[in-house]
From TrEMBL:
Residue stretches making up the Gfo/Idh/MocA-like oxidoreductase C-terminal domain: 151-328
Protein EC: 1.1.1.18
Recorded GO MF terms: inositol 2-dehydrogenase (NAD+) activity; nucleotide binding
Alphabetical list of InterPro entries matching this protein: Gfo/Idh/MocA-like_OxRdtase_C (IPR004104), Gfo/Idh/MocA-like_OxRdtase_N (IPR000683), Myo_inos_IolG (IPR030827), NAD(P)-bd_dom_sf (IPR036291)
EC class of the enzyme, as a word: oxidoreductase
Gene3D superfamilies linked: Dihydrodipicolinate Reductase, domain 2, NAD(P)-binding Rossmann-like Domain
Annotated Gfo/Idh/MocA-like oxidoreductase N-terminal domain residues: 2-119
NCBIfam families in the record: myo_inos_iolG
Similarity-based family: Belongs to the Gfo/Idh/MocA family.
Protein name per UniProt: Inositol 2-dehydrogenase
Keywords on record: Oxidoreductase
Source organism per UniProt: Ruegeria atlantica
């Protein structure tokens, strides 16, 4: 049984607490949070003990830590945990700052400890099936990848202010999905963003709606569309046009009933948000981490993957500000 310390008992920390405790080979042993009451409440639900993050990292009885704290703490905690001999699963993104993330990658790499990044969408069964079909050559060579990712409602502006902006906080998942599906990193990135959903997000210096286009060395293209608001729920779709056909992963709906009457044809909405849509993916992500740690094999999503996606977010942020395409070699 692996003993796990969870750092951060907020929105995503609660999701991971469930996955860790539901897994037959891991025990949620200790929880920390900067707000002690948050850790106490979650620890009571799972029978874990409450410790500070430093205490968990220094605790020789803990085998691995899951970092679910705000983004600006990730690099410091990854470095401290790996230097203390812990395996790490850390939430995305690696850091707000690309240069800091690269330093973290080097420092953690030098310890030899496994570090996995929390790109949970790689573990969604629909996207995995799409990738398997593409890798098997079923639609030929990729020519145009389209990723749609709309949240149902924007986060509080207080979160936006510390998030690093839409490209680093939200679209980072889609950058990683593009890398995962195509197996390559783009050559150039062009981005345009606006704040039509909530003017306060614009006043905070961020955008809530954005489109990115990416060009690859092999001549193929990708487009990513993000919005912080979709009135009908969490819209998560992928479409891959290849030389011999099209692969599409549609939304997961609340139910599969379609009503057809004289008034028209209607069906259920997409599931509400990430908790509903991706709970199976978070469990599969945790299982993949656990298997890698126990078998000594490589983790399936690396710090290198995290740095690559962050570099793409950096390029998109610069492109949206300057209004010109940004070459990946300018940032990476
Ligand atoms: N993969 C996903 O689907 C997904 C979804 C949401 C958030 N996230 C990522 O997870 C991270 C946390 O996001 P959230 O929405 O859960 O935020 P949150 O604010 O709800 O929770 C973060 C918690 O960490 C605590 N904290 C702060 N510093 C700490 C420290 N040094 N040690 C221990 N606890 C500390 C805070 O008090 C808070 O309770 C962010 O990096 C975000 O990008 C990922």
């Amino acid at each position: 049984m692996l003993k796990i310390g969870l750092l951060g008992a907020g929105r995503i920390g609660r999701v991971h607490a469930e996955a860790i405790s539901a897994h037959p080979k891991t025990e949620l042993t200790a929880i920390s949070d900067a707000v002690n009451d948050a850790a106490v409440g979650l620890a009571a639900e799972y029978g874990a003990r409450v410790q500070s993050s430093d205490e968990i990292i220094g605790d020789s009885t803990i085998d691995a830590v899951l970092i679910a704290t705000p983004t600006d703490t990730h690099s410091d905690l990854i470095e401290a945990a790996t230097q203390a001999g812990k395996a790490v699963l850390c939430e995305k993104p690696v850091d707000l700052d690309l240069e800091r993330a690269k330093i973290c990658q080097k420092a953690a790499g030098a310890t030899g400890q496994p570090v996995m990044l929390g790109f949970n969408r790689r573990f969604d069964p629909n996207f995995q099936a799409l990738k398997a079909a593409y890798d098997a050559g079923e639609v030929g060579k990729a020519e145009l990848l389209s990723i749609t990712s709309f949240d149902p409602a924007p986060p509080p502006v207080s979160y936006v202010k510390v998030s690093g902006g839409l490209f680093r906080d939200m679209m980072i998942h889609d950058f990683d999905m593009a890398n995962y599906l195509t197996g390559q990193i783009p050559v150039t990135i062009s981005a345009v963003g606006t704040s039509v959903v909530d003017p306060e997000i614009g006043q905070a210096g961020d955008v809530d709606t954005a489109v990115v286009t990416m060009a690859y060395a092999d001549g193929s293209l990708a487009v990513i569309k993000n919005s912080r608001r979709a009135a009908y729920g969490y819209d998560q779709r992928v479409e891959l046009l290849g030389s011999r056909g099209l692969l599409q992963a549609h939304n997961v709906l609340e139910n599969s009933v379609v009503k057809s009457t004289a008034d028209g044809v209607t069906g259920a909405k997409p599931t509400y948000f990430f908790l509903e849509r991706y709970m199976a993916a978070y469990r599969a992500e945790w299982d993949a981490f656990t298997r890698a740690i126990q078998s000594g094999s490589n983790v399936p999503v690396t710090l290198e993957d995290g740095v690559a996606a962050l570099a793409m977010a950096e390029a998109a942020t610069r492109s949206a500000k300057s209004g010109r395409p940004v070459a990946m070699e300018e940032v990476f």
